[in-house]
Amino acid sequence: MNLYDPHDDALDHVQPNKPHADALRKLRAGLANDPHGMMRWWEGDYPCKMPWRGIRCEGGNGVTHIIMSNRGLSGHIDPAIGLIETLQVLDLGNNFIFHEIPGEAIANLTRLETLNLHNNKIRGKIPPELGNSTSLVHIGLSRNLLAGPIPKELGKIQTLVSLDLAMNFLNGTIPAELGDLIYLAELNLGKNRLRGAIPPELIPEDRVSKLVTLRMSSNMLEGTVPTWWGSQLKYLQILDLSRNWLIGDVPPALADIPNLRELWLNHNKFMRGETPAVLTNKGLQVLVR
Fold first, then answer.
1. List of domains in the chain
2. Reported pTM
3. Beta bridge partners of residue 171, listed in sequence order
């Protein structure tokens, strides 16, 4: 991956950045298995010059992007990552990284917007320290081996737009504090071991939600679908509550969701009676009862 034009004269003016270079080499040491040699040439003190593959620097000599997805990397993420204070994107998805997420180190990255660790072998709990972030926009932790509860502290990340925690071993209840994420557009909690009722605070009755996708399938959620879910879900297109333990009737108010395209309700303990006609007449692309 060449993230710089080798013919760009600006490269001649790049300054050394030894702290970032040292932190990246600690990251390399932790990710000891590098079958494609992505980090082989990470030497010297100029991480913003080629041939530092997978590294990108925007607007100076500070590292802003680490992009090494689909590279067969294995090992752990060294906490030294927290010393790269200019980092905006950390993308290590689709590898074989294990151990735990260095939450405190990542929370110290005050410019980090994207944390993608999707499809690895990461164990342990989701660190509550992530809730101290003031900049995260996208968190992707799906398809790992994470266990334990979803930290309520995640509800403090007021910049968050997407949160994908699907296909782990998370348990406990859905924190009501996730309803404080007023800019959240994508929430995927599917295929975990979550229990309890859907918290009413998740989508308050008196506030328009920015959610576009809400997936909570294949858990052990109980109780009923909130009866007020309707017009305040102004932007919602996909709602997946399938494969839970929900009971009760299908709320007719779901037909008031103006942009709903897919509604998945199958494989629950519920639902009594017929699907409301207002839903069957809505012309949804997918309606699975």
1. 9-288 (3.80.10.10)
2. 0.93
3. 193
